Amino acid sequence: MTRGRFxxxxxxxxxxxxxxxxxxxAALRARxxxxxxxxxxxxxxxxxxxxxxxxxxxxxxWSPRAEALLFAAAxxxxxERTIRPALDRGAWVLSDRFLDSSRAYQGMGELTDSDIxxxxxxxxxxxxxxxxxxxxxxxxxxxxxxxxxxxETSDRIGGRDRAFHQRVAEAFSRFAAQEAxxxxxxxxxxxxxxxxxxxxxxxxxxxx
Length: 208
Ligand code: Z5A
What we know:
alpha/beta; Rossmann fold; 5 strands
């Protein structure tokens, strides 16, 4: 039995990750692969309960340290209960966000990138995706897409200011530059079909 592949989709709010995750899953299934679609925070029973704690409530509900630990705890459960078992039976796992989101959102303030990687080593034995697809979209376009869907409402973290989201985007770009063997930047502009084609090209060498 060949082990499956683990692919994460990353990017800012409104970039089209959820849309592309569904489209990519359909394209991979059409090639005869078993595909598990999952997300973070969440993706297992325990992690979905933690998601609710993380994304609801006031802006200061959690301290930065408590927030980072909750994301790491949710990820540990997700990896153990959902991702590893699926990979072991040969399935491909597509996750809407994973570790790089914690590095970009929680690892550039009170905590550093190295702190987040340490939490990940403790929580999930440093487990990494086979490939991370970073969807890039100009901020104005991403905001317009998110607004079309949500109006003016956003979750606890999505509601942070523009400068915060700019730093997140810069962090993702840095990961793509520094970890080019794993993190691929993919242009998320244009039609959903065109973006899916680009994503498939970025997975070309991994496809059976
Ligand atoms: N977070 C964190 O801080 N640390 C962590 O470790 C993790 C997460 C794992 C999760 O929010 C929040 O948690 C997130 C980061 C933080 N907060 N922020 N920011 P979420 O899971 O609820 O949502 P999200 O991950 O931020 O994504 P999103 O807002 O759902 O956006 P998306 O998935 O990238 O986009 P979409 O839903 O696919 O598309 C948005 C709209 O655009 C929708 O109406 C689509 O129909 C439309 N769309 C999609 N593609 C196109 C194209 N090509 N053209 C035109 N319109 C399109």
